Amino acid sequence: LTTPNAASIENIWTLIRGYNIYHPYSGYGIYGRHNREYIPRELEMLLRAHHFEPRMVVDDVYEHRLLHRLLAVGPLGHRRDNLFAVAQKRATTIEAHLDWLFLVHGAKRRVERGEIVMGHRDRSQLGEGWHEVEHEERTFRWTGREATAYLKPTGSETRFVMVAFSGAKAMRGKIELNGVEAASFSVGPDHRGELVANVPKQCIDDFRAGKFSQCEVKIRVDDVLIPARDTKGSDDARELGIGVEKLALQ
């Protein structure tokens, strides 16, 4: 994969001189120009988020003046014209809508599925209370003290399933479906598992009657993990509840 480097020396020099670096509108439509360019770190993050392991190179492909060639060495080597990446798939690829790339795409909620796999087209079915998606041994999102998600019922579901884990602190909390308590949980530190709960009868009746077109899932924890406070050597000041990998109605 190759793409222009948004942080190139040429772009910076163009802006300093008072000119715009964006491409003109194209008569060939949205595919006739670069609608978004990336810096090296962004391209690497984008590939990793889609389960690729990249090897990144930043280099010039055009002829430049001597001054440019002298500047584009040493600490400014990542300011060259183009980004090149060769990437190897390391897991099943996903369609990830990253928070830093799709700033407003979730402004209109689209509840289309009865299952949410974190990191895979998840943002349009998430409400408030979620931290940015993370990709480590598994893909997940931390909740805060309270987090909301939305699932689409078909009317035949009887179970609610959540795959999640706790951090370095024991966690207690509860889950509500459309305002009705469906389950409570209490787990020790660094525990991962699958919670399976019966959908409350009131919710089942409402789903079958077509009263609700979506199911609001609310996850609440009694306390939060603040790594900067609760773990040694961390400067992470976020309030973390549980790490959620998957939510589903079955």
Which whole number gives the mean pLDDT?
Answer: 89
Number of separate helices: 5
Main beta-sheet strand count, sense and barrel state:
6 strands, antiparallel
β content, as a range?
25-35%
Question: How many DSSP E strands?
Answer: 13
SS content category: alpha+beta
Query: What is the string of helix and strand elements?
Result: EHHEHEEEEEEEEEHEHE
| Global morphology | elongated
Radius of gyration: 23 Å
What's the end-to-end separation, in Å?
39 Å
What oligomeric assembly is this protein in?
A: single chain
Question: Uncertain runs with pLDDT below 50, 5 residues or more?
Answer: none
Measured as a percent range, the helix fraction is 10-25%
Describe the protein in words.
With 250 residues, this protein is α+β, with helices and mostly antiparallel strands. The chain is 14% helix and 31% strand. It contains 5 helices and 13 strands. It has helices at residues 9-16, 40-49, 66-71, 201-208, 227-230; strands at 2-4, 52-59, 82-89, 115-117, 134-135, 139-142, 146-151, 159-165, 171-177, 180-187, 192-198, 215-221, 243-249. Strands 4, 5, 6, 8, 11 and 13 form a 6-stranded antiparallel β-sheet that branches. The protein has a 4-stranded antiparallel β-sheet with strand order 7-12-9-10. It has a 3-stranded antiparallel β-sheet with strand order 1-3-2, covered by helices on one side. The two termini are 39 Å apart. The model has no long low-confidence stretch (mean pLDDT 89).
What brief labels describe this structure?
single chain, 250 residues, alpha+beta, six-stranded antiparallel beta sheet, four-stranded antiparallel beta sheet, 5 helices, 13 strands, 14% helix, elongated
